[in-house]
Amino acid sequence: MDVKEAMSIGGLEKGEIVAGNKGVNRPVRAVEVMEVPDTTSWLTEGLLIVTTFYAIKDNPEAQINFFQTLIKEKGAGLVIKPGRFIKNLPEEMYRLANQNNMPLITVPNDVVYGDILTPLYEELYKERSADLGYYQVLASILDTTDQDLNHIVNRLEDYLGNPVYIEDTKTRLLAASQEKLNDDWRRSYFLLTKASSGFQRFINNPETLEKLKHGKCPVKVGREEQRESRVIFPIRDNNQLLGFITVIEKNQPLEEENDALLQQVASHLSLLLIKDRFSSQAQQSLEREFVNDLIEGNILPGELEHRAAGLGIHSHHASFFLTLNYQSYLQEHAEEQDVRSQDPFVLQQIKTIVQPLFEKTMIFFKRNQLYLFCSVPSEKDVSQAVKEKGHQMIERINQAFHFPFNLGIGRVYCDLNDVYRSYEKAQLVLKIGRDVWGTGQAVHFDQLGVYRFLMKLRNDSETLQYAHDLLRPLLDYDRKNLQSQLVKSLKVYLQTNGNVTKASELLFVHRSTLKYRLKKIQDITHMDLDDSEMRLQFQVAFKLLSMHSDSSF
Prior knowledge:
Blueprint: H1 3-6, E1 16-19, E2 30-33, E3 47-51, H2 60-72, E4 77-80, H3 91-100, E5 104-106, H4 113-142, H5 149-160, E6 164-168, E7 173-176, H6 197-203, H7 206-214, E8 219-221, E9 230-237, E10 240-248, H8 259-279, H9 281-296, H10 304-310, E11 318-324, H11 326-332, H12 343-354, E12 360-366, E13 369-376, H13 382-401, E14 407-409, H14 420-437, E15 442-444, H15 451-454, H16 461-480, H17 486-495, H18 500-507, H19 511-525, H20 532-546
Parallel strand pairs: 2-3, 3-4, 4-5, 14-15
Antiparallel strand pairs: 1-5, 6-7, 6-10, 8-9, 9-10, 11-13, 11-14, 12-13
Helix pairs in contact: 2-3, 4-5, 4-8, 16-20, 17-18, 18-19
Protein name: PucR-like helix-turn-helix protein
InterPro entries: CdaR-like_regulators, CdaR_GGDEF, GAF-like_dom_sf, Homeodomain-like_sf, PucR_C-HTH_dom, PucR_C-HTH_sf, PucR_dom
Domain CdaR GGDEF-like: 301-432
Protein backbone atom coordinates (compact mmCIF):
# COMPACT_ATOMS: atom_id res chain seq x y z
CA MET A 1 0.00 0.00 0.00
CA ASP A 2 1.24 3.51 -0.81
CA VAL A 3 0.08 6.94 0.38
CA LYS A 4 -2.24 7.32 -2.59
CA GLU A 5 -4.04 4.08 -1.72
CA ALA A 6 -4.14 5.02 1.96
CA MET A 7 -5.91 8.26 1.09
CA SER A 8 -8.84 6.21 -0.24
CA ILE A 9 -9.28 4.18 2.95
CA GLY A 10 -11.37 5.04 6.05
CA GLY A 11 -10.99 8.48 7.63
CA LEU A 12 -8.20 9.50 5.26
CA GLU A 13 -10.78 9.72 2.48
CA LYS A 14 -11.73 13.06 4.08
CA GLY A 15 -8.11 14.16 4.17
CA GLU A 16 -6.16 16.46 1.89
CA ILE A 17 -2.51 16.47 0.87
CA VAL A 18 -1.54 20.10 1.47
CA ALA A 19 2.14 19.71 0.51
CA GLY A 20 4.52 17.06 -0.83
CA ASN A 21 1.99 15.80 -3.41
CA LYS A 22 4.73 14.18 -5.48
CA GLY A 23 5.37 11.70 -2.66
CA VAL A 24 2.02 9.86 -3.01
CA ASN A 25 3.85 6.73 -4.17
CA ARG A 26 5.79 6.37 -0.92
CA PRO A 27 5.09 2.92 0.57
CA VAL A 28 3.13 2.71 3.82
CA ARG A 29 4.44 -0.15 5.95
CA ALA A 30 3.08 0.92 9.36
CA VAL A 31 0.83 3.53 10.99
CA GLU A 32 1.42 5.10 14.43
CA VAL A 33 -0.06 7.87 16.59
CA MET A 34 2.42 10.45 17.97
CA GLU A 35 1.33 12.58 20.92
CA VAL A 36 4.45 12.53 23.12
CA PRO A 37 7.61 14.53 22.39
CA ASP A 38 10.26 11.79 22.67
CA THR A 39 9.27 9.65 19.68
CA THR A 40 11.91 10.31 17.06
CA SER A 41 13.97 7.26 18.15
CA TRP A 42 11.37 4.86 16.78
CA LEU A 43 10.68 6.57 13.46
CA THR A 44 11.28 4.04 10.64
CA GLU A 45 11.06 3.79 6.88
CA GLY A 46 7.51 3.55 5.59
CA LEU A 47 5.93 4.82 8.83
CA LEU A 48 2.84 7.02 8.48
CA ILE A 49 2.46 9.29 11.53
CA VAL A 50 -0.93 10.56 12.74
CA THR A 51 -0.83 13.43 15.29
CA THR A 52 -2.40 16.60 16.68
CA PHE A 53 1.06 17.86 17.75
CA TYR A 54 -0.50 18.37 21.18
CA ALA A 55 2.76 17.70 23.05
CA ILE A 56 4.60 20.33 20.98
CA LYS A 57 1.68 22.56 19.97
CA ASP A 58 3.46 25.67 21.23
CA ASN A 59 6.88 24.76 19.83
CA PRO A 60 7.14 25.31 16.04
CA GLU A 61 10.86 24.50 16.10
CA ALA A 62 10.15 21.07 17.63
CA GLN A 63 7.47 20.50 15.00
CA ILE A 64 9.95 21.26 12.24
CA ASN A 65 12.68 19.07 13.82
CA PHE A 66 10.25 16.18 14.11
CA PHE A 67 9.26 16.53 10.46
CA GLN A 68 12.91 16.70 9.38
CA THR A 69 13.61 13.45 11.27
CA LEU A 70 10.65 11.77 9.56
CA ILE A 71 12.08 12.84 6.20
CA LYS A 72 15.55 11.58 7.14
CA GLU A 73 14.19 8.17 8.18
CA LYS A 74 12.20 7.90 4.91
CA GLY A 75 8.81 7.85 6.56
CA ALA A 76 5.61 7.58 4.52
CA GLY A 77 4.02 10.88 5.53
CA LEU A 78 2.56 13.04 8.31
CA VAL A 79 -1.18 13.26 9.02
CA ILE A 80 -2.23 16.27 11.17
CA LYS A 81 -5.56 17.24 12.70
CA PRO A 82 -5.27 21.06 12.86
CA GLY A 83 -7.82 23.31 14.51
CA ARG A 84 -8.20 22.18 18.10
CA PHE A 85 -4.64 22.37 19.42
CA ILE A 86 -2.76 23.89 16.50
CA LYS A 87 -4.14 26.47 14.12
CA ASN A 88 -1.38 26.72 11.53
CA LEU A 89 1.71 24.71 10.71
CA PRO A 90 5.08 26.44 10.23
CA GLU A 91 5.71 27.55 6.63
CA GLU A 92 9.05 25.72 6.78
CA MET A 93 7.18 22.38 7.02
CA TYR A 94 5.36 23.11 3.74
CA ARG A 95 8.68 23.98 2.09
CA LEU A 96 10.36 20.80 3.42
CA ALA A 97 7.38 18.67 2.33
CA ASN A 98 7.53 19.93 -1.25
CA GLN A 99 11.32 19.87 -1.40
CA ASN A 100 11.55 16.23 -0.19
CA ASN A 101 8.27 14.90 -1.64
CA MET A 102 7.08 14.04 1.86
CA PRO A 103 3.25 14.07 1.99
CA LEU A 104 1.83 16.50 4.54
CA ILE A 105 -1.80 15.53 5.10
CA THR A 106 -4.55 17.30 7.02
CA VAL A 107 -7.85 15.76 8.14
CA PRO A 108 -10.94 17.45 9.59
CA ASN A 109 -11.11 17.74 13.36
CA ASP A 110 -14.20 15.50 13.53
CA VAL A 111 -12.28 12.51 12.16
CA VAL A 112 -11.28 10.35 15.14
CA TYR A 113 -8.15 8.24 15.29
CA GLY A 114 -10.13 5.01 15.04
CA ASP A 115 -11.55 6.06 11.65
CA ILE A 116 -8.01 6.37 10.33
CA LEU A 117 -6.13 3.63 12.16
CA THR A 118 -8.51 0.65 12.12
CA PRO A 119 -9.07 0.49 8.32
CA LEU A 120 -5.35 1.05 7.66
CA TYR A 121 -4.35 -1.66 10.15
CA GLU A 122 -6.75 -4.09 8.47
CA GLU A 123 -5.33 -3.33 5.03
CA LEU A 124 -1.74 -3.68 6.26
CA TYR A 125 -2.62 -6.99 7.91
CA LYS A 126 -4.05 -8.28 4.64
CA GLU A 127 -0.92 -7.23 2.78
CA ARG A 128 1.41 -8.78 5.35
CA SER A 129 -0.61 -12.00 5.36
CA ALA A 130 -0.40 -12.12 1.59
CA ASP A 131 3.32 -11.33 1.66
CA LEU A 132 3.86 -13.96 4.33
CA GLY A 133 2.05 -16.54 2.23
CA TYR A 134 4.08 -15.52 -0.81
CA TYR A 135 7.41 -15.83 0.96
CA GLN A 136 6.39 -19.00 2.77
CA VAL A 137 5.45 -20.77 -0.44
CA LEU A 138 8.53 -19.40 -2.20
CA ALA A 139 10.80 -20.47 0.66
CA SER A 140 9.23 -23.92 0.82
CA ILE A 141 10.06 -24.37 -2.86
CA LEU A 142 13.37 -22.56 -3.28
CA ASP A 143 14.96 -23.36 0.07
CA THR A 144 14.08 -27.05 0.16
CA THR A 145 16.46 -29.83 -0.73
CA ASP A 146 13.43 -31.88 -1.79
CA GLN A 147 13.50 -32.09 -5.57
CA ASP A 148 10.13 -33.79 -5.90
CA LEU A 149 8.22 -31.88 -8.58
CA ASN A 150 4.90 -33.00 -7.08
CA HIS A 151 5.85 -31.21 -3.86
CA ILE A 152 6.33 -28.02 -5.84
CA VAL A 153 3.04 -28.14 -7.77
CA ASN A 154 1.07 -29.02 -4.64
CA ARG A 155 2.53 -26.05 -2.75
CA LEU A 156 1.65 -23.83 -5.71
CA GLU A 157 -1.89 -25.20 -5.78
CA ASP A 158 -2.30 -24.51 -2.05
CA TYR A 159 -1.20 -20.92 -2.55
CA LEU A 160 -2.89 -20.11 -5.88
CA GLY A 161 -6.12 -22.05 -5.35
CA ASN A 162 -5.97 -23.56 -8.85
CA PRO A 163 -4.68 -26.78 -10.45
CA VAL A 164 -1.04 -26.62 -11.55
CA TYR A 165 1.07 -28.96 -13.66
CA ILE A 166 4.52 -29.11 -15.22
CA GLU A 167 5.27 -30.43 -18.71
CA ASP A 168 8.38 -30.81 -20.84
CA THR A 169 8.70 -29.33 -24.33
CA LYS A 170 7.04 -32.41 -25.83
CA THR A 171 4.02 -31.70 -23.53
CA ARG A 172 4.80 -34.85 -21.51
CA LEU A 173 3.52 -34.55 -17.95
CA LEU A 174 6.26 -34.28 -15.31
CA ALA A 175 4.07 -33.43 -12.29
CA ALA A 176 0.46 -32.51 -11.48
CA SER A 177 -1.16 -31.10 -8.34
CA GLN A 178 -3.85 -32.94 -6.39
CA GLU A 179 -6.72 -31.11 -8.08
CA LYS A 180 -6.93 -31.87 -11.79
CA LEU A 181 -9.06 -30.83 -14.73
CA ASN A 182 -9.78 -32.83 -17.86
CA ASP A 183 -10.48 -30.62 -20.85
CA ASP A 184 -9.67 -30.51 -24.56
CA TRP A 185 -6.00 -29.79 -23.93
CA ARG A 186 -5.21 -32.46 -21.32
CA ARG A 187 -7.15 -35.62 -20.57
CA SER A 188 -4.53 -37.79 -18.89
CA TYR A 189 -2.54 -37.02 -15.75
CA PHE A 190 -0.29 -40.07 -15.70
CA LEU A 191 3.43 -39.31 -15.75
CA LEU A 192 4.96 -38.72 -19.20
CA THR A 193 1.60 -38.82 -21.00
CA LYS A 194 1.34 -36.13 -23.65
CA ALA A 195 -1.20 -33.33 -23.77
CA SER A 196 -3.99 -33.48 -26.34
CA SER A 197 -3.20 -32.62 -29.95
CA GLY A 198 -4.86 -29.20 -29.62
CA PHE A 199 -2.37 -28.09 -26.98
CA GLN A 200 0.53 -29.57 -28.94
CA ARG A 201 -0.46 -27.52 -31.99
CA PHE A 202 -0.78 -24.38 -29.84
CA ILE A 203 2.61 -24.86 -28.19
CA ASN A 204 4.37 -25.60 -31.49
CA ASN A 205 2.89 -22.54 -33.17
CA PRO A 206 5.86 -20.28 -34.08
CA GLU A 207 4.26 -17.23 -32.46
CA THR A 208 3.66 -19.12 -29.18
CA LEU A 209 7.17 -20.56 -29.20
CA GLU A 210 8.65 -17.09 -29.71
CA LYS A 211 6.73 -15.77 -26.68
CA LEU A 212 7.75 -18.72 -24.54
CA LYS A 213 11.41 -18.56 -25.54
CA HIS A 214 11.95 -14.81 -25.43
CA GLY A 215 8.88 -13.12 -23.94
CA LYS A 216 8.93 -11.34 -20.59
CA CYS A 217 5.32 -12.21 -19.73
CA PRO A 218 3.53 -15.55 -19.42
CA VAL A 219 1.27 -16.78 -22.22
CA LYS A 220 -2.41 -16.40 -21.35
CA VAL A 221 -5.07 -18.54 -23.03
CA GLY A 222 -8.74 -17.65 -22.81
CA ARG A 223 -11.59 -19.97 -21.93
CA GLU A 224 -13.52 -21.81 -24.63
CA GLU A 225 -16.43 -24.25 -24.54
CA GLN A 226 -14.34 -27.39 -24.05
CA ARG A 227 -11.28 -25.73 -22.56
CA GLU A 228 -10.64 -23.81 -19.34
CA SER A 229 -8.55 -20.65 -19.38
CA ARG A 230 -4.93 -21.03 -18.29
CA VAL A 231 -1.66 -19.17 -17.88
CA ILE A 232 1.55 -20.77 -19.14
CA PHE A 233 4.95 -19.86 -17.67
CA PRO A 234 8.05 -21.00 -19.60
CA ILE A 235 10.84 -22.91 -17.88
CA ARG A 236 13.99 -21.96 -19.72
CA ASP A 237 17.75 -21.85 -19.46
CA ASN A 238 18.82 -18.68 -21.26
CA ASN A 239 16.83 -19.03 -24.49
CA GLN A 240 16.57 -22.82 -24.37
CA LEU A 241 13.04 -23.91 -23.55
CA LEU A 242 12.94 -26.79 -21.04
CA GLY A 243 9.23 -27.01 -20.28
CA PHE A 244 6.22 -25.15 -18.88
CA ILE A 245 4.30 -24.47 -15.69
CA THR A 246 0.58 -24.29 -16.44
CA VAL A 247 -1.94 -22.79 -14.02
CA ILE A 248 -5.54 -23.72 -14.86
CA GLU A 249 -7.93 -20.92 -13.88
CA LYS A 250 -10.54 -23.40 -12.73
CA ASN A 251 -11.53 -21.79 -9.45
CA GLN A 252 -10.45 -18.17 -9.84
CA PRO A 253 -8.44 -15.92 -12.17
CA LEU A 254 -4.69 -15.88 -11.58
CA GLU A 255 -3.72 -12.50 -10.14
CA GLU A 256 -0.93 -10.74 -12.01
CA GLU A 257 0.84 -10.14 -8.69
CA ASN A 258 1.57 -13.89 -8.64
CA ASP A 259 3.52 -13.71 -11.91
CA ALA A 260 6.74 -12.88 -10.06
CA LEU A 261 6.34 -15.93 -7.82
CA LEU A 262 5.76 -18.28 -10.74
CA GLN A 263 8.65 -16.82 -12.70
CA GLN A 264 10.98 -17.42 -9.74
CA VAL A 265 9.66 -20.96 -9.43
CA ALA A 266 10.23 -21.46 -13.17
CA SER A 267 13.85 -20.31 -12.75
CA HIS A 268 14.28 -22.76 -9.89
CA LEU A 269 12.77 -25.56 -11.96
CA SER A 270 15.19 -24.87 -14.80
CA LEU A 271 18.04 -25.51 -12.38
CA LEU A 272 16.37 -28.67 -11.11
CA LEU A 273 15.74 -30.04 -14.59
CA ILE A 274 19.32 -29.33 -15.63
CA LYS A 275 20.58 -30.80 -12.36
CA ASP A 276 18.53 -33.96 -12.94
CA ARG A 277 20.23 -34.29 -16.32
CA PHE A 278 23.79 -33.37 -15.47
CA SER A 279 24.71 -32.49 -11.89
CA SER A 280 24.03 -35.88 -10.36
CA GLN A 281 26.07 -37.74 -12.97
CA ALA A 282 29.16 -37.88 -10.74
CA GLN A 283 27.26 -39.49 -7.83
CA GLN A 284 25.46 -41.88 -10.18
CA SER A 285 28.76 -42.79 -11.76
CA LEU A 286 30.25 -43.66 -8.35
CA GLU A 287 27.20 -45.71 -7.40
CA ARG A 288 27.11 -47.50 -10.77
CA GLU A 289 30.82 -48.33 -10.54
CA PHE A 290 30.38 -49.71 -7.01
CA VAL A 291 27.38 -51.84 -7.97
CA ASN A 292 29.06 -53.15 -11.12
CA ASP A 293 32.18 -54.12 -9.16
CA LEU A 294 29.95 -55.73 -6.54
CA ILE A 295 28.12 -57.79 -9.16
CA GLU A 296 31.27 -58.74 -11.07
CA GLY A 297 33.29 -59.54 -7.94
CA ASN A 298 35.89 -56.90 -8.71
CA ILE A 299 36.20 -55.48 -5.21
CA LEU A 300 39.38 -56.51 -3.43
CA PRO A 301 39.22 -58.03 0.07
CA GLY A 302 39.12 -55.28 2.69
CA GLU A 303 37.88 -52.65 0.22
CA LEU A 304 34.18 -53.53 0.34
CA GLU A 305 33.28 -52.00 3.71
CA HIS A 306 35.30 -48.85 2.99
CA ARG A 307 33.72 -48.21 -0.42
CA ALA A 308 30.25 -49.05 0.90
CA ALA A 309 30.62 -46.65 3.82
CA GLY A 310 31.67 -43.90 1.41
CA LEU A 311 28.30 -44.26 -0.30
CA GLY A 312 26.30 -44.41 2.92
CA ILE A 313 25.86 -48.19 2.99
CA HIS A 314 26.22 -50.00 6.31
CA SER A 315 27.99 -53.32 5.83
CA HIS A 316 25.95 -54.94 8.62
CA HIS A 317 22.64 -54.02 7.00
CA ALA A 318 20.59 -56.38 4.83
CA SER A 319 20.97 -55.72 1.09
CA PHE A 320 19.25 -56.91 -2.06
CA PHE A 321 18.55 -56.08 -5.70
CA LEU A 322 15.29 -55.16 -7.42
CA THR A 323 14.70 -55.02 -11.16
CA LEU A 324 11.97 -53.46 -13.30
CA ASN A 325 11.13 -54.47 -16.86
CA TYR A 326 12.05 -51.05 -18.26
CA GLN A 327 12.76 -52.61 -21.64
CA SER A 328 9.04 -53.37 -21.97
CA TYR A 329 8.31 -49.72 -21.22
CA LEU A 330 10.73 -48.64 -23.97
CA GLN A 331 9.11 -51.02 -26.45
CA GLU A 332 5.66 -49.65 -25.56
CA HIS A 333 6.89 -46.12 -26.38
CA ALA A 334 9.11 -47.09 -29.30
CA GLU A 335 7.31 -44.66 -31.66
CA GLU A 336 8.69 -41.74 -29.61
CA GLN A 337 12.14 -41.12 -31.08
CA ASP A 338 13.40 -39.31 -28.00
CA VAL A 339 11.96 -41.65 -25.38
CA ARG A 340 15.43 -42.27 -23.90
CA SER A 341 15.78 -38.54 -23.21
CA GLN A 342 13.36 -39.10 -20.34
CA ASP A 343 15.60 -41.67 -18.59
CA PRO A 344 16.87 -39.15 -15.98
CA PHE A 345 13.31 -38.09 -15.14
CA VAL A 346 12.15 -41.72 -14.88
CA LEU A 347 15.08 -42.49 -12.58
CA GLN A 348 14.31 -39.49 -10.38
CA GLN A 349 10.59 -40.29 -10.13
CA ILE A 350 11.16 -43.93 -9.28
CA LYS A 351 13.81 -42.99 -6.75
CA THR A 352 11.34 -40.53 -5.17
CA ILE A 353 8.83 -43.37 -4.82
CA VAL A 354 11.34 -45.89 -3.49
CA GLN A 355 13.38 -43.75 -1.06
CA PRO A 356 10.67 -43.59 1.66
CA LEU A 357 10.44 -47.40 1.60
CA PHE A 358 14.11 -48.37 1.85
CA GLU A 359 16.88 -46.69 3.83
CA LYS A 360 19.46 -46.60 1.02
CA THR A 361 18.69 -46.91 -2.68
CA MET A 362 20.89 -46.82 -5.77
CA ILE A 363 19.20 -46.90 -9.15
CA PHE A 364 20.88 -47.62 -12.47
CA PHE A 365 20.38 -48.96 -16.00
CA LYS A 366 22.03 -52.11 -17.26
CA ARG A 367 21.26 -53.65 -20.65
CA ASN A 368 18.09 -51.55 -21.00
CA GLN A 369 16.71 -52.84 -17.72
CA LEU A 370 16.34 -50.78 -14.59
CA TYR A 371 17.91 -52.08 -11.37
CA LEU A 372 17.87 -50.91 -7.78
CA PHE A 373 20.35 -51.81 -5.09
CA CYS A 374 18.71 -51.37 -1.69
CA SER A 375 19.95 -51.59 1.88
CA VAL A 376 17.81 -51.80 5.05
CA PRO A 377 18.54 -52.47 8.73
CA SER A 378 18.76 -56.17 9.53
CA GLU A 379 15.81 -57.26 11.63
CA LYS A 380 13.54 -60.19 12.19
CA ASP A 381 11.39 -61.10 9.16
CA VAL A 382 13.34 -58.64 6.99
CA SER A 383 12.50 -60.66 3.85
CA GLN A 384 8.78 -60.41 4.55
CA ALA A 385 9.11 -56.66 5.17
CA VAL A 386 10.97 -56.24 1.86
CA LYS A 387 8.30 -58.27 0.08
CA GLU A 388 5.49 -56.07 1.47
CA LYS A 389 7.33 -52.87 0.58
CA GLY A 390 7.98 -54.26 -2.90
CA HIS A 391 4.22 -54.60 -3.43
CA GLN A 392 3.72 -51.00 -2.25
CA MET A 393 6.49 -49.86 -4.57
CA ILE A 394 5.12 -51.49 -7.74
CA GLU A 395 1.61 -50.26 -7.00
CA ARG A 396 2.81 -46.65 -6.68
CA ILE A 397 5.04 -46.86 -9.77
CA ASN A 398 2.28 -48.35 -11.92
CA GLN A 399 -0.18 -45.71 -10.71
CA ALA A 400 2.28 -42.93 -11.51
CA PHE A 401 3.28 -44.12 -15.00
CA HIS A 402 0.06 -45.88 -16.01
CA PHE A 403 2.16 -48.79 -17.25
CA PRO A 404 2.14 -52.37 -15.89
CA PHE A 405 5.72 -52.62 -14.71
CA ASN A 406 6.80 -55.92 -13.17
CA LEU A 407 9.17 -56.03 -10.22
CA GLY A 408 11.60 -58.81 -9.47
CA ILE A 409 12.84 -58.88 -5.86
CA GLY A 410 16.06 -60.78 -5.28
CA ARG A 411 16.85 -62.66 -2.10
CA VAL A 412 17.90 -60.54 0.88
CA TYR A 413 21.47 -61.01 2.16
CA CYS A 414 22.96 -59.77 5.42
CA ASP A 415 26.53 -60.01 4.11
CA LEU A 416 27.58 -57.59 1.36
CA ASN A 417 29.98 -60.22 0.05
CA ASP A 418 26.99 -62.39 -0.89
CA VAL A 419 24.60 -59.77 -2.28
CA TYR A 420 25.79 -60.24 -5.88
CA ARG A 421 23.66 -63.41 -5.86
CA SER A 422 20.58 -61.25 -5.31
CA TYR A 423 21.23 -59.47 -8.63
CA GLU A 424 21.05 -62.71 -10.59
CA LYS A 425 18.00 -63.89 -8.68
CA ALA A 426 16.16 -60.58 -9.24
CA GLN A 427 16.60 -60.99 -13.01
CA LEU A 428 15.31 -64.52 -12.87
CA VAL A 429 12.36 -63.58 -10.69
CA LEU A 430 11.41 -60.80 -13.12
CA LYS A 431 11.35 -63.18 -16.07
CA ILE A 432 9.53 -66.02 -14.32
CA GLY A 433 7.21 -63.73 -12.37
CA ARG A 434 5.88 -62.06 -15.50
CA ASP A 435 5.20 -65.42 -17.17
CA VAL A 436 3.61 -67.04 -14.14
CA TRP A 437 1.94 -64.22 -12.18
CA GLY A 438 1.16 -61.87 -15.09
CA THR A 439 1.90 -58.18 -15.63
CA GLY A 440 1.97 -55.40 -13.05
CA GLN A 441 3.13 -57.67 -10.20
CA ALA A 442 5.93 -57.67 -7.64
CA VAL A 443 7.40 -61.14 -7.07
CA HIS A 444 9.96 -62.09 -4.43
CA PHE A 445 12.47 -64.86 -4.91
CA ASP A 446 10.93 -66.80 -2.03
CA GLN A 447 7.64 -67.00 -3.97
CA LEU A 448 9.14 -69.05 -6.80
CA GLY A 449 8.41 -72.37 -5.14
CA VAL A 450 9.21 -75.28 -7.45
CA TYR A 451 11.00 -72.92 -9.82
CA ARG A 452 13.79 -72.68 -7.27
CA PHE A 453 14.53 -76.38 -7.80
CA LEU A 454 14.23 -76.09 -11.56
CA MET A 455 16.72 -73.24 -11.50
CA LYS A 456 19.53 -75.74 -10.97
CA LEU A 457 18.51 -77.48 -14.17
CA ARG A 458 17.93 -74.43 -16.34
CA ASN A 459 21.43 -74.57 -17.87
CA ASP A 460 21.77 -78.33 -17.93
CA SER A 461 22.17 -79.12 -21.66
CA GLU A 462 20.53 -82.55 -21.51
CA THR A 463 17.51 -81.27 -19.59
CA LEU A 464 17.09 -78.31 -21.93
CA GLN A 465 17.41 -80.57 -24.94
CA TYR A 466 14.60 -82.74 -23.58
CA ALA A 467 12.36 -79.69 -23.09
CA HIS A 468 13.14 -78.43 -26.59
CA ASP A 469 12.51 -81.84 -28.15
CA LEU A 470 9.12 -81.99 -26.45
CA LEU A 471 7.92 -78.56 -27.58
CA ARG A 472 9.89 -78.04 -30.82
CA PRO A 473 7.36 -79.83 -33.08
CA LEU A 474 4.61 -77.48 -31.89
CA LEU A 475 6.81 -74.40 -32.42
CA ASP A 476 7.73 -75.58 -35.93
CA TYR A 477 4.05 -76.11 -36.75
CA ASP A 478 3.16 -72.60 -35.50
CA ARG A 479 5.88 -71.06 -37.67
CA LYS A 480 4.44 -72.73 -40.76
CA ASN A 481 0.83 -72.02 -39.79
CA LEU A 482 0.74 -68.50 -38.30
CA GLN A 483 -2.85 -68.72 -37.04
CA SER A 484 -2.49 -72.04 -35.26
CA GLN A 485 -1.08 -70.78 -31.90
CA LEU A 486 -0.59 -74.32 -30.61
CA VAL A 487 2.19 -73.43 -28.16
CA LYS A 488 0.20 -70.56 -26.62
CA SER A 489 -2.98 -72.65 -26.47
CA LEU A 490 -1.18 -75.50 -24.68
CA LYS A 491 0.45 -73.13 -22.22
CA VAL A 492 -2.87 -71.45 -21.27
CA TYR A 493 -4.62 -74.83 -21.13
CA LEU A 494 -2.04 -76.08 -18.62
CA GLN A 495 -2.19 -72.84 -16.61
CA THR A 496 -5.96 -73.32 -16.18
CA ASN A 497 -5.48 -76.93 -15.00
CA GLY A 498 -7.01 -78.36 -18.14
CA ASN A 499 -10.20 -76.25 -17.97
CA VAL A 500 -11.22 -75.89 -21.64
CA THR A 501 -13.91 -73.29 -20.96
CA LYS A 502 -11.67 -71.00 -18.94
CA ALA A 503 -8.72 -71.46 -21.32
CA SER A 504 -10.84 -70.62 -24.39
CA GLU A 505 -12.05 -67.44 -22.68
CA LEU A 506 -8.49 -66.36 -21.94
CA LEU A 507 -7.48 -67.12 -25.52
CA PHE A 508 -10.57 -65.37 -26.93
CA VAL A 509 -11.51 -68.39 -29.04
CA HIS A 510 -14.51 -70.68 -29.15
CA ARG A 511 -14.39 -73.92 -27.10
CA SER A 512 -14.55 -75.98 -30.27
CA THR A 513 -11.54 -74.08 -31.69
CA LEU A 514 -9.50 -74.87 -28.59
CA LYS A 515 -10.58 -78.52 -28.64
CA TYR A 516 -9.43 -78.72 -32.26
CA ARG A 517 -6.06 -77.27 -31.30
CA LEU A 518 -5.64 -79.66 -28.36
CA LYS A 519 -6.41 -82.59 -30.67
CA LYS A 520 -3.79 -81.27 -33.09
CA ILE A 521 -1.25 -81.01 -30.25
CA GLN A 522 -1.84 -84.63 -29.28
CA ASP A 523 -1.50 -85.77 -32.89
CA ILE A 524 1.81 -83.92 -33.36
CA THR A 525 3.43 -84.83 -30.01
CA HIS A 526 1.83 -88.24 -29.52
CA MET A 527 1.10 -87.15 -25.94
CA ASP A 528 -2.24 -87.75 -24.21
CA LEU A 529 -3.31 -84.49 -22.52
CA ASP A 530 -5.79 -86.39 -20.36
CA ASP A 531 -2.84 -88.11 -18.73
CA SER A 532 -1.65 -86.03 -15.73
CA GLU A 533 1.89 -87.40 -16.03
CA MET A 534 2.16 -86.20 -19.62
CA ARG A 535 0.68 -82.82 -18.73
CA LEU A 536 3.34 -82.58 -16.01
CA GLN A 537 6.09 -83.12 -18.59
CA PHE A 538 4.76 -80.24 -20.65
CA GLN A 539 4.49 -78.04 -17.55
CA VAL A 540 8.07 -78.78 -16.51
CA ALA A 541 9.29 -78.11 -20.05
CA PHE A 542 7.55 -74.71 -20.14
CA LYS A 543 8.88 -73.79 -16.70
CA LEU A 544 12.43 -74.77 -17.59
CA LEU A 545 12.44 -72.88 -20.86
CA SER A 546 10.82 -69.79 -19.31
CA MET A 547 13.93 -69.46 -17.14
CA HIS A 548 16.31 -69.66 -20.07
CA SER A 549 17.31 -66.35 -21.63
CA ASP A 550 17.63 -67.86 -25.14
CA SER A 551 14.24 -69.51 -25.05
CA SER A 552 11.49 -68.70 -27.55
CA PHE A 553 8.79 -70.11 -25.27
